Amino acid sequence: MHITIHPLPPTEIPTFITIELAAFAPHPRIPMLWPRGYTPDLHAYMARVKREAFPSPSNHFIKAVDSDTGEIVGVSQFEIKEEGDEAGELLAEDAPPPGDWPEGGNWGMKRFFARESWRLVEGSFGRGAHVVIDLLLIHPTHQHRGIGSQLLQHVLEEADSRNIPVGLESTPAGLALYKRHGFVETRVIKADMRAFGWREEYDEEAAKRVWMVRDKVGGREG
Ligand SMILES: CC(C)(COP(=O)(O)OP(=O)(O)OC[C@H]1O[C@@H](n2cnc3c(N)ncnc32)[C@H](O)[C@@H]1OP(=O)(O)O)[C@@H](O)C(=O)NCCC(=O)NCCS
């Protein structure tokens, strides 16, 4: 298998979403966030959000392609912020859901995590130049073949060529990969799912997120 990395065009947003939903399917937060499952209104909402991110010059969508088959096996979305760039908007604590929010979706949980993410980025980087990896996803049938490492390496080369730090929120599944590539655990974020109306048992350890930062090349020892 030979993997090549390319920009992902807007026409391939549906494939991005298919991989995203498949990769996150085992995560304990998914049934809490989308109790009706992966419905057409969820696909439409996700596609709209990604379409809106495309024109922003700081946003980047890339894909890992198996050049033997042409199949897209992994995707990533990341942002490159220049010194002094505006931070995105912090959602208000009582912000209502968007008009196309999927029926039954847990807006309170989504808003909580969006606000937390904003604070983590702001707290680590402020207005300094940095990269944030929003998503790094390998289709489940292609995991553990080194494709995640290749995609990550591609993003890290972008950061290193600018000599800027990189931050991301890792799921437990990604921790080992990111540590191998120089990320350091900076903050563990747990959220009590019961605060968002969840009544069933869930694996809190599997649901945790870890904010990880990889310093700029010039800031590292050695
Ligand atoms: C986390 C994720 C991106 C990793 O992608 P991946 O392609 O499986 O990553 P890699 O193959 O490069 O590395 C994963 C493991 O496979 C191992 N591996 C790499 N190449 C291998 C090969 N040819 N054969 C066997 N194992 C291999 C690596 O050593 C690594 O092991 P470790 O995690 O125990 O250290 C992927 O599992 C995923 O999409 N998960 C769901 C979504 C998610 O949680 N994303 C991260 C947060 S956004």
UniProtKB/TrEMBL annotation:
It holds the Pfam family Acetyltransf_7. Gene3D superfamilies: 3.40.630.30. Residues 3-203 form the N-acetyltransferase domain. PROSITE patterns: GNAT. It comes from the Eukaryota. GO terms for molecular function: acyltransferase activity, transferring groups other than amino-acyl groups. InterPro entries: Acyl_CoA_acyltransferase, GNAT_dom, Trichothecene_AcTrans. This is N-acetyltransferase domain-containing protein. It comes from Zasmidium cellare ATCC 36951. The lineage of its organism: Eukaryota, Fungi, Dikarya, Ascomycota, Pezizomycotina.
